Amino acid sequence: MQHAVGSPLPPPHQPGHGPAAGWSSAAHHPGPQHQGPAPVPPPPPGYPGAVSGPRPPVAPPPAAPHPVPPVAPPHQAPPAAPLPETTGHVTLPPGGPVAVPSAPAAPEAGVTTLAVLLIGPAGAGKTSVAKYWADHRRVPTAHISLDDVREWVRSGFADPRSGWNDHSEAQYRLARRTCGFAARNFLANGISCILDDAVFPDRPVVGLGGWKRHVGPGLLPVVLLPGLDVVLERNAERTGNRRLGDEEVARIHGRMAGWYGSGLPIIDNSQLDVPATARLLDEVLARSIASPPSW
């Protein structure tokens, strides 16, 4: 017989027969069953330890304990102060303004933690020299290129070939501030930095003043200024938005000439390759450590 709901019923009990095979007696007596231990019969008479006479009364099973009222949670302590920023299990020191490096007895720029700003026009070789210098130092050193950071902006990028306007000015300032934050964090963790940017001497507030605010007074600026013919030749080898028109390159190079007489160290790398320029940069930085330029 098919039942609409539940499992099939057990076969009916036949008079004079026990429970059907395969079916437990619990199936015929639904409901709660006694879960306590089965009563133990008294030992037979004559058994060692048996007690003659009437059986002592059996104590009833202990009553169930009364439910314990819930305990109120303890008073919550105020939240702890936030932990310092960490990466994995390594605590990172916060980046602060970079102080002026102390002059050792024998200054050696190759093993000192430094913050360097390499200044120059488009085509001066700033990026190539900065990468080579960072690659060949004996201490950890990072290269932070302003153009690389500026090109993080993809949609809405202010292309320098389209002219100078408020939009491109804002993106340049934002890139400089981002580079400054990165440099301070690297330096706070013992990693030197070299940044490269085309800073103009006739805009001190935006140029060197901005870099000093973003990085700190310990930043060491060095100007890389080859001749105009060399700059034009190197610019012609560029591609993409980093290649400027010849007139624009000549105008920028003319403005950069204002660094002569400023007190900043200047390297003319017109006749120098990248390794020779990097070695000369180390010599210039050693002198700047011994006697920091005022800027």
Overall description:
The protein is α/β, with parallel strands linked by helices and 295 residues long. It has a domain at 110-290: Rossmann fold, CATH 3.40.50. 28% of the residues lie in helices and 9% in strands. It contains seven helices and seven strands, in the order E-E-E-H-E-H-H-E-H-E-H-H-E-H. The protein has helices at residues 126-135, 146-150, 166-188, 208-214, 228-236, 246-256, 274-290, and strands at 86-87, 90-91, 115-119, 141-145, 192-197, 220-224, 266-267. The strands form two sheets. It has a five-stranded parallel sheet with strand order 4-5-3-6-7, sandwiched between helices. A two-stranded antiparallel sheet has the order 1-2. The longest helix is centred in the middle third of the chain and has 23 residues, at 166-188. The radius of gyration is 43 Å and the shape is elongated. The termini are far apart.
Summarize this, please?
With 295 residues, the chain is an alpha/beta fold. The protein is 28% helix and 9% strand.
Key structural traits:
295 residues, Rossmann fold, two-stranded antiparallel ribbon
Q: What is the CATH-assigned architecture of the domain at 110-290? A: 3-Layer(aba) Sandwich
Number of strands: 7
The low-pLDDT segments are: 19-32, 103-107
The largest β sheet comes out as: 5 strands, parallel
How would you sum up the global shape? elongated
Radius of gyration, Cα only, in angstroms? 43 Å
